Amino acid sequence: MDLRQLRYFVAVAEELHFGRAAERLAITQPPLSFNIRQLETSLGFELLRRSTREVALTPAGRVMYQEAVKILALARDAQGLAGRAAKGETGTVHVGFVGSAMLTNLAVAIRAFAQERPGVEVVVHELNSFEQIDALQRGLIDIGLAHPRVLPAGLVSHVLHAERFICVLPASHALAAQAEVDLRQLQQEAFVLFPRHFAPEYHDKIVALCMGAGFTPSIRHEVRHMLTIATLVSQNFGVSLVPASVQLVQLPNLACRPLARPGRASELHGVWRADELAPAVLALLAALEAGGDGEVLP
Predict the structure, then answer these.
(1) Residue range 177-233, pLDDT digits in tens
(2) Per-residue pLDDT at 5 exceeds 50
(3) Domains of the chain (ranges plus CATH)?
(4) Is the distance from CB of 245 to CB of 104 less than 8 angstroms?
(5) Confidence band of 86 (pLDDT split at 50, 70, 90)
(6) Please, what's the largest Cα pairwise distance for the chain?
(7) Cβ–Cβ contacts within 10 Å for residue 294, how many?
(8) Which terminal residue of the chain has fewer beta carbons within 10 Å of its beta carbon, N or C?
(9) Is the dihedral of CA 72, 75, 79, 80 positive or negative?
């Protein structure tokens, strides 16, 4: 029994005439009759009573007709759903992100993607860069939005967003009165930063900026999230260097100043499994690449 035989049987059951059913199916009558016989043989009972004057359903045929209609409808639905999945229009995509990523146009791209593809459920998870790598390897997330770092085998990445570093400091700090901050002026300041193992390469980039200005930063406080860094700075725990998008956060006693010599850019990378084949995941990656380049702020 196959779907074609069921489709042929439904046509005959509804027309109760082999000629009209064959015309409806756009086939000749002999293959129609042959397929109905094959279906009956595979089932082991008759579905139709045939005579020179009429075609009628047997009791088994009436039951089979009702079930065949359901099966064909389910097959059509399955084909439609599978087709949408193949186009990346259905499914679930889990995205890991560092907190600052949601302050960039990557967040806008994710939201636009979800609105354009309502059949795709996009679930976001706030994780530091280290946690995202682990979650990708374990299959807990499909895409990571992380600070750059060396990746283990099986993962690949691409730069999605780049922006300048800025200095955040208490608004009451003397340097906040300046239009911009020279890194050399931060030599004696206590820094608030994240632990190096969360994102070694990104951490080292910030330290390298300071070393390029002639000093090693005194990292007094370590916290997990970029927004926590901004909060502690606003509470006079120290100063920090953060991505420019952090200045979108409005906190009392927080001042954001550009650097006199910006130096290296702060980057966010998209990270995913090298063997990723899910159409919805690949579609979101394409949307992020299209919508993520450049700075959020002028």
Answers:
(1) 999 999 999 999 999 999 998 888 899 999 999 999 999 999 999 998 888 999 999
(2) yes
(3) 3-86 (1.10.10.10), 91-161+267-291 (3.40.190.10), 165-264 (3.40.190.10)
(4) yes
(5) confident
(6) 105
(7) 10
(8) C
(9) positive
Ordered DSSP codes for 3-37: HHHHHHHHHHHHHS-HHHHHHHHTS-HHHHHHHHH
Tell me the H-state helices in the chain. 3-15, 18-25, 29-43, 59-86, 105-116, 129-137, 200-212, 226-234, 279-291
The encoded tokens of residue 89 equal: 């229009």
Paired tokens of 182: 């020279």
Q: Quick one: tokens of 235? A: 């509470």
Handedness of CA 115, 116, 118, 119 (dihedral sign): negative
Closest listed residue to residue 13, CA positions, set 63, 53, 80: 63
> Is 291 in contact with 105 (CB distance < 8 Å)?
yes
Q: What's the angle, vertex CA 54, arms to CA 52 and CA 59, rounded to 5?
A: 125
